[in-house]
Please model this.
Amino acid sequence: MTIIALEKICFAYPGQPPVLTGASLHLQAGQRLSITGPNGSGKSTLLHIALGLQRPSSGAVRIFDKDRKEEADFHEVRRRIGLVFQDPDDQLFCPTVAEDIAFGPLNLGKSRHEAMAIVDRVLGDLDLMHLKDRSTHKLSGGEKRLITLATVLAMEPEALLLDEPTNALDPENEARLLEILLSLPQAILLVSHSTPFRAALAPERLELQGGRLVPM
Model:
């Protein structure tokens, strides 16, 4: 199954030259794919377009074999594809770790009891149960990154979009993150400047050159 199909995507921020000038990519179920390119080349923008957080000026966005154009078209997409933002503070906003992880399942209609069971399961799977009752804002940078991933996994997504997941991670936490991600079944679309991390997690690579994606 093709999870994400972006065809000839063009995009420009207001008052700026075009960032994307016909970028195309396909992510299949179970595939691990990296996107590379210089800062400002449009890597994060592509991830946001796949989830409807940005809208292309032209081109086709087809997710789970359905064309997605309007905001309502992306509600299902955001339930089934999880995005780990570049900055964990953009995703963590509840007083405690448990509440942050429970937020998504509760929004999907889970009961409080069901949501807390998901919290325990995800934290147990990631060996992070010791952080359950911690204040989110008192976590280290590495801990925040791992909890951000936990909040996404609590939604049981079919694919993960990872935007510079190793930013501000020390070697120990980067190794722990890689170990977790390698154990997951989900398809992964990775944006990362870390060559060793890409090589280990998603060696198949597309590079953004002049607003288009080129196989490497």
Summary: The beta strands are 2-11, 20-28, 32-36, 58-63, 66-67, 81-84, 159-163, 187-191, 204-209, 212-215. The longest helix spans residues 112-125. Helices lie at 43-50, 74-80, 97-107, 112-125, 141-153, 171-182, 195-201.
